[in-house]
Amino acid sequence: WTPFSHRLLLRQNPSKSKGGSDGCNFCLSVQTVLGKDRERAQKMCSPFKRLTVFIHFPQHYILAFGGIIAVPLILAEPLCIKDNNVAKSQLISTIFFVSGLCTLLQTALGTRLPILQGGTFSFITPTLAILALPKWQCPAPNSPVMLSVQLQNGTSPLQMENSDEIWMSRMREIQGAILVASLLQIVLGFSGLVGLVLRFIGPLAIAPTINLIGLSLFIEAGKKSGGHWGIAALTVSLILLFSQYLSKVNVPMIAYKDKKWKVFQYPLFKLFSALFGMCGGWLVCFLLTIFDVLPTKSDQYGFSARTDISLDAVKNSPWFHVPYPGQWGLPTVSLSSVLGMMAGVLASTMESIGDYYACARLSGAPPPPTHAINRGIAVEGIGCILAALWGTGNGTTSYSQNIAALGITKVGSRLVLQTTGILMIILGIFGKFGAVFITIPDPVIGGMFLVMFGMIAAVGISNLQYVDLNSSRNLLILGFSTFGGLVLPTWFHSNPGIIDTGIKELDQVIIVLFTTHMFIGGFFGFVLDNTIPGTDKERGIKSWQDKVQGESKCTCDQSCYDIPFCTPIFKRFRCFQYLGTFLDSGQH
C-alpha cells in the first residue's frame, strides 16, 4: 500500500490463458479473450454503470490519502511551519487539489490507464537536503529575522517577524527546483530517451536508490513516533493486523446488480488497512484526551498524542480556499537545488514505468506500448510542473496502492479514476477538510511512517530478485552503494561548514548532492555496475529485460492507449511516428 509497491506487484506472474495471453481494450469494448481470462476481462471491460462508479471512486481516494497527507506533514518542520496549523492545512488542500488535476491529465492524455497521481517520496530526500542548507535553516523561536524580500525595483532587506514569509520563502525555493528539474522528465518522455536511459540503469542501481529513500526518512519517523511510543506501536500493530492477519477476511456487503440486491464478499480490511489503523490510533488518543490520561503540558512526554492540540486549525481555516498558481509567490531558482531535485526526478521516473505495466495487467488492458509509456512519463513531468506552480512542495507520481486495488475489485475503469480526480479537486477547495488531517496526533502519523518507510526500503531490496546474489561482484556493489549512501550524508550533516571552495554556489551544490542519500547510493550503484565487468545475466539486466519484453509482446488491439480525436490525425503525418510519444514505429 505504499507508493513504491509496484516492484512487489511486478514479481507476480501475469495470469495467462491456455489459448493465448492477449489483453483487452479495457474501457472501449470486450476483445476476444480465451480460457480463464474471459470472465476477468468481462468484469474489467463491461460498460460501467453509475452505481459502479459511485461505489469505487471513494475507495481510490481513501487508499491514496495516507501517502498524500504524509508529504506536507514531513515537510512542515523543515519549512518552519511546525506550529502554523493553518498553513499546514493549506498545503494539504493544495496537494489534494493538484493530485486531482494530475490524475485527470494522466488518465486522459498520459498513459490513459486507470492510475492515480499523488505526492512522491522521491522528492522528499532532496527537499530535506536543500532545506538543511544554512541559509534555509529555521530561525530561533521569537527572534526577529532579516529577510531579503524581492521587490520589483530590486532587493530590499526588511527586518520582520513574519512567520508566513519565513516558510513561503523556503517553499518558493523548492517550487523553483521542482519546476526546472521536472523539465528533465518531460524531455525524457517526449524525446523517447527513457528506454535508452534504462539500458544503463539496472537492478543494482535501482535497489540502493529506492532502498535509501526509505532508510533516509527514519529520523522523521522517529520524531513523530517519539511523542508517544505506545500510541505509535498501537498504530503499527493495527495496520499489521488489518493488512496481514485479516487480509483473507472478507466482509459481506450489499450491492444492486441485474435489477436486484445481492450480497458479495468485500476485502475491506485488506484495502483500507492504513486507514483503519490510523483511525484506531486516533480513537485511542481521543479517549485518552477526553479522560485526561495524557499530560496537559507541552514539555511532558506524551503531550503530542493529545487530539485537542491543533483544533485551532479547523476553527481558523476558511470554509473554501481555491489553490492557485503562485499563491506563495514567484518561485526562485538556484543551481544546487535544481541538481539535487533531478535525483528525485530520475527515481520517480524509474518507479512509474513499473507501475504502468502492473496497472495494465491488473486492469485487463494490453501491455502499454512504448509511445504510451513515453507519454505517461512526459505527463508526469507536466504534473510535477503544475505541483511546483501551485506550491505543494512536492511533485506527483503514480500510486501503486491504487493499482493493487484494481486486481482486487476487478474494476479497471479510467472513468472511476477520473471521478476520483474530480473528488480530490473538490475536497482540495474545501478548506476545513484539509484542516481535519492536522488534528491527527503525531504518534499516529509516526506509526504510519514506520510501516510506510519500512515498506519503501524493502521494495527497493526486492529489485535484487533479478540479480545473482552469489556473485561477490554484485554483493560488493550493493553493500558499498547502500553503506556509502548512509555514511557520506551523515558525515556532511555532522560537519556543517566543512565545504569551503570560496564559491558559495559551488559549496551549495556539493552539500546538497552529498547530503541526498539516494543520489549517493544510486550514483555509486550506477557507476560500479556499468564499469566493473559482469555478464548481463549476473547483473540482472537479462532477467529484467526478459520480463519487461515478455509483458510487452502483444498482438492484441492497443487502441485504448490512443488519444481521442488526436491519434487519427497523428497517423496521417509520418513525423509523429519518429517522436516516440504519439505513435510507435509502423503505426503510420
UniProtKB/TrEMBL annotation:
Bilayer-crossing regions: 61-79, 91-109, 177-206, 226-247, 268-291, 328-347, 415-438, 444-463, 475-494, 509-528
Membrane topology: Multi-pass membrane protein
UniProt key word Nucleus: no
The keyword Transport belongs to this UniProt entry's keyword annotation: yes
Top-level taxon: Eukaryota
GO CC annotation terms, alphabetical: plasma membrane
Pfam families: Xan_ur_permease
Protein location: Membrane
GO function terms (MF aspect): transmembrane transporter activity
Keywords of this entry: Membrane, Transmembrane, Transmembrane helix, Transport
Main location: membrane
Family: Belongs to the nucleobase:cation symporter-2 (NCS2) (TC 2.A.40) family.
Protein name: Uncharacterized protein
